[in-house]
Amino acid sequence: MQEKKIPYKIYLEESEMPDSWYNLRADMKNKPAPLINPGTGKPLTAEELSPIFCEELVAQELDDTTPFIKIPDEILSFYRMYRPSPLVRAYCLEKKLQTPAKIYYKFEGNNTSGSHKLNSAIAQAYYAQKQGLKGVTTETGAGQWGTALSMACSYFDLDLKVFMVKVSYEQKPFRREVMRTYGASVVPSPSETTEIGKKILAEHPGTTGSLGCAISEAVEVATKNPGYRYVLGSVLNQVLLHQSVIGLETKAALDKYGIKPDVIIGCAGGGSNLGGLIAPFMGEKLKGTADYRIVAVEPASCPSFTRGTFAYDFCDTGMICPLAKMYTLGSSFIPSANHAGGLRFHGMSTILSQLYHDGYMEAVSVEQTSVFEAAEQFARIEGILPAPESSHAIRVAIDEALKCKETGEEKTIVFGLTGTGYFDLVAYEQYNDGVMTDTIPTDEDIAASIAKLPKVE
Amino acid sequence: MQEKKIPYKIYLEESEMPDSWYNLRADMKNKPAPLINPGTGKPLTAEELSPIFCEELVAQELDDTTPFIKIPDEILSFYRMYRPSPLVRAYCLEKKLQTPAKIYYKFEGNNTSGSHKLNSAIAQAYYAQKQGLKGVTTETGAGQWGTALSMACSYFDLDLKVFMVKVSYEQKPFRREVMRTYGASVVPSPSETTEIGKKILAEHPGTTGSLGCAISEAVEVATKNPGYRYVLGSVLNQVLLHQSVIGLETKAALDKYGIKPDVIIGCAGGGSNLGGLIAPFMGEKLKGTADYRIVAVEPASCPSFTRGTFAYDFCDTGMICPLAKMYTLGSSFIPSANHAGGLRFHGMSTILSQLYHDGYMEAVSVEQTSVFEAAEQFARIEGILPAPESSHAIRVAIDEALKCKETGEEKTIVFGLTGTGYFDLVAYEQYNDGVMTDTIPTDEDIAASIAKLPKVE
Lengths: 457, 457
Fold this sequence. Notes:
CATH class of the domain at 10-16 and 72-114 and 238-450 in chain A: Alpha Beta
Largest interface: A-B, 44 and 44 residues
Strand content of chain A: 15-25%
Radius of gyration of chain A: 21 Å
Oligomer: homodimer
CATH architecture of the domain at 10-16 and 72-114 and 238-450 in chain A: 3-Layer(aba) Sandwich
Largest sheet of chain A: 7 strands, mixed
Distance between the termini of chain A: 52 Å
Strand order of the largest sheet of chain A: 1-4-5-15-10-11-14
Number of helices of chain A: 18
């Protein structure tokens, strides 16, 4: 292909945007293991899932054979308000690093939710509305997912109840206020509005809540109120399906300029961004039509890929959700309190876990002070103040570019910049004040929570 | 021209971006009146201005004859990191309003500073670096300008001292933290670091500061320290010049699709955004080659166009800056304390004042509760959480679209969406809680401050 001048930002035309999501599972020989009902010990059926999730989303969750699933027009209309997201050539960063590497990042932060979460939120809200539901419930910790879902529900006139971990509710009043502006009702969790909330408050009067507890409250409200379902922003197969729009756009933009990446880097918590970003590239790798290095970056304080084990485990700390076969630190593992930002999940998407297990991906863990160092460097050079989560990928992209500087290799590096850090300034303040610390779990910590894994087969 | 399908977002190609700023003054028959030195009563000379401002910026400030000024490559490189900004067709808003009007907005919020201020900040930082300066000083109130300038100075390795009005410094710690992340030193004003600050603190020990005082401190530091100059983010001719990039891109995007706007709407505080947005359209209007309705929207609590007088006045409440001939409420006018967001300036750009005086523009004032009502409606439909300032323009754009619904006219409405409201959530919270109020100054209030205008000629 003829070489074209590559602009700072590659924007696809609207007509070049993907009109289907890509279901990577269809091209996997070793399919991800099914979710298991902890009560029966058997794979969950559509019937068992449909009181909790919307019907169409249940179908997407279980479908591991259809490679492309058409994006409904109503979702495409919404996507067009904030997508395509730019694929940015980091010319200024390359110059500053004096690296021969070519660095690109797919920037998902140009929307009010501030992250890629909106890609799945709008899809889940659409299917809920299509099913004639009144509303949905969810939990949120840091608030990215809650914000995205509040935007999506407001667009489709759906009621939304968000259970926000109490400590975040109090410490992040602005996140809460964005959700309220979009019409969501935001309840600090644990709350007196649910049976499980009342029980927890009675047992632990001063608790500031946890994601596990917020999930339990959201599921209770969804299953007890006719016309409601529960929705989740990461880990699930359906979420990775919706997020494939990130990777499809990235690949289309690269193809347009005849660029083939050598390394693709993404941060990984539950896997929603990484799974979406790499989907079409991994598809080619699975089919043997192309090869790429694919690198998952996780926090050293919550290293499920690099120090976890591949086994069935509960998806939530409350142990009320299904069992999934994944890389996990054990559902009782809690990252150190000094851990800033997201990527705190003890497990990992079953799709990514299977691929990592089969050797199709690498993983690396990084400490948060070095992550914030990269974040600040990136902000000062490329202008964008990145989310702490996204900055894990920045750290490794810079490290790879610096390796190229040593070796002289002109590698093409692509990484996912999942979002902005406008609501994470407490963490930036800690870093600016020099009081941010790192904590790496000991082998004993991890062994202790892994020892509590449920027994399956 | 053949009609093309208009996408949700029109992005210019990099090659279609303007490479010169447009100096509207060159095409004005009645030039804006010159700045006057309050000491001598005579027009300010380049010599008098150069201890305060960079040389090249002084030249731009005084140049009212050169129509196009080339944008230096270094600035173009930075522009390409966050520009072109999208011109968005508000299809979803049109549908919700059921209006035959076609609504477009030029969205300047897709950068970390969150507003159009970056367009001038990067230019001013560039000229400071080119002159070999060590750094610059400025003041900031709400923090948009300070944030933009901190990004610009970090890019050009310039030192930056920001005097931030103390009440904002304390109430907006996150804005402060963004500036620190970009390496700026942020000082609450009044401070013990300047003579004027010490004097004010001695006289008013409990003061929470004011913009006027912060300006005085910034100017003092700039003039007393070799290698420093003072920079300002609005009102000045040079700022409107740099902001013309907004209007030039808007016009290029519209021309590309053969669209001719009927009405162009922008919010107006000091005039930086409005002056930039309308520049090329006003240029055509002045030459008689096209006609447009051009509407300035100002807050009812600070209505300089609609209720001020056209006269020479101080640009700052501290009365240390030059005199400018402009629409003004009097430099002693202070908007009611319940006023949220920016657009609090008592005066208006001399360029826009002259044009308004000569009948080339309309102006309208709106109350803040109706502004936040429009902001919320816009956020829920178009996804973007707008800045309170920008929402003044949204209010009037929606009103115009609703008029079209009544009359059946298919007008094309273009408005400037200057930025995002991510750091304005205290104001949104007041609105969400139903405790936001409106205050309109009485005729007596305005007459009292206008009575204190300086005597010139």
